Amino acid sequence: MKKILFSICLLGTVSGLRAEDGHQLWLRPHASVPVKVVGPAKSSALLATARQELQQGWQGTAGATVTLKLTKDKAIKYDGFRLNAQGVQANTERGLLYGAFGLLRRQQTGQAVAEEISNPSYEYRLLNHWDNPDGSVERGYAGQSIFWRKDSSFVVTGHDRALWQQYARANASVGLNGAVINNVNSSPLMLSAAYLARTKAIAGALRPYGVRVYLAVKFSSPALLGGLKTSDPLDPAVIKWWHAKVKEVYQQIPDFGGFVVKASSEGQPGPQDYGRTHADGANLLADALRPYGGLVMWRAFVYSPSDKDRAKQAYNEFVPLDGKFLDNVIIQVKNGPIDFQPREPFSPLFGALKKTAVMPEFQITQEYLGQAIDLVFLAPMWQECLRSDTHQAGPGSTVARCTDGSVYAQKHSAMAGVSNVGLDTNWTGHDFAQANWYAFGRLAWNNQLDSRQIADEWLKLTFGTAAQLAAADWDAHFLAPMTQLLLASREAAVNYSMPLGLHHIMSATHGHYGPGPWWGPPGMRADWTPPYYHQAAANGVGFDRTTAGSNAVSQYHEPLAAEFNNPATCPDEYLLWFHHLPWDFKMKSGRTLWDELALHYDHGVRQVRQFQQTWDAARPYVDAERFAVVQNKLRTQSGNAVLWKDACLLYFQQFSHLPIPAEVEPPM
Ligand code: GCU
């Protein structure tokens, strides 16, 4: 019996069975009505996909004719499209596919189809998979890799292909057009013939959906894989090696997208090992890729133990290099200066590089935001970053506009999200983590889109039926409260874990899940330990990044630098990010810092309890399986929130010596 069960489970996870078991993300089958699709005379895989999607999902007038038309329209940008009641027009085949999905989404979410143009904010919209060649996934909470397998078997099965196609279809439905299929902590093996052969097969499965494949490469590959004496970017043999390797890649995969590189960071090799700069390293690869139209996405996530304030390092290393990168290099910058924390101010590199293309990197996988246990909808966090005004080219120079080509002329533009996808049957570990994949795609397409609209769309597509969408009670009893829940969930996570600008105080022993402000074994690098970041002591708490402290504040353009530098004007959200303040510091609310901190932790706990009630009330509108799973996870999340609150308040109380305010639930 056990064996049978085991084999069923196995099939359910690694096979293409997802189509039958209901885990179809936001792409559930709908009872469609007949439609006639008229398209360009030429046939191509992409056009066939567009046609098939329309035929499978049409909800409009029965027997209608939809025209897919390739055009040359200057108002349409990149793979954008023009929609009207008659059909879709686009300059590219990808555009027709996105238009087809756009049309279906409007039908399925009950929106009218009006004449409109929809252009993507970014030319390249990519997922970064931190998948290792052995099938494990760094910071992955949804099972093993969908691309690589532990047994190193390079046999590509029908199941593999089916899975990759479903994955690509989901990406295409939200406009994502690229996938970096391996970890930024890359293995040189990725560029070996055997791995390239599997990469080619993956590219083949993704191509009909317009998703290009990219690889993360290890900078020392010439030495490690090629057997050269060095990987010095200025060495002629190294240059030759990369050119030959790139040629080999394009022979296998003619539409290969390019390389992502994590170099001279967290122990990864890089140009600095040879006394060279990031520009030397990036340009070497860019030069090799350029004849084929390939890109280099060079990451700015760099820090070393030597720096006194890790938050400053990327800016210090990259700003002096502005203008020195080839135009097919894009600097890939995490939203905040430290590392995907629940809340950070935007990275000061946004807008500061004026002659170099910069792209935002967001983390979809919830490393510091509850992993696959806690329900945290990330669109509000990304929106907060994208809408932050850098002031670098006057008011209105938001992160969105500084990266999409609106403020600075740049040849290419892109946005990347670290994927949360794995072999789990629901793809993302938590059913609601699917919403973050969806949200990332939608924001990469339109960086002005509001989180509320994204939440509304995702809930309708994932949980609603046509009948429910038409019924008022579904709106009032499911859609409205669940939208509220999604929109509040990120702030709740900030409240119960790292409020008021606290950051990096998570547990290291539990893989970054749960609290750990005390963590710091003897001999450990200080900048990996929470006490380095919160600086709690009898005289107060917080990291002093003011002009009197590390001076990280000066990396922001005025008026932000002055605003952040002064505790009276610094937003509460970033207070302890920029300031070390006494426990009895008077907050804008009139309360002391200590009381305010305690109230935020307590509020976070109460918010999660409210989410539990909202979900319990949603029971009639959700299938039993998902209802029970999410209900259980919310229970665990609620416990996690209490743990955060109690652990942090009791830990900090050792320094503050102040009582827990009466309104706050006493620690257990
Ligand atoms: C974080 C994460 C690492 C990852 C790194 C990166 O530090 O914990 O697993 O390698 O970010 O983005 O490179």
TrEMBL record:
GO terms for molecular function: alpha-glucuronidase activity; xylan alpha-1,2-glucuronosidase activity. GO terms for biological process: xylan catabolic process. Keywords: Hydrolase. This is Alpha-glucuronidase. InterPro entries: A-glucoronidase_C_sf, GH, Glyco_hydro_67_C, Glyco_hydro_67_cat, Hex-like_dom2. Residues 428-663 form the Glycosyl hydrolase family 67 C-terminal domain. The keyword Glycosyltransferase does not apply. Residues 111-427 form the Glycosyl hydrolase family 67 catalytic domain. GO terms for cellular component: extracellular region. It holds the Pfam family Glyco_hydro_67C.
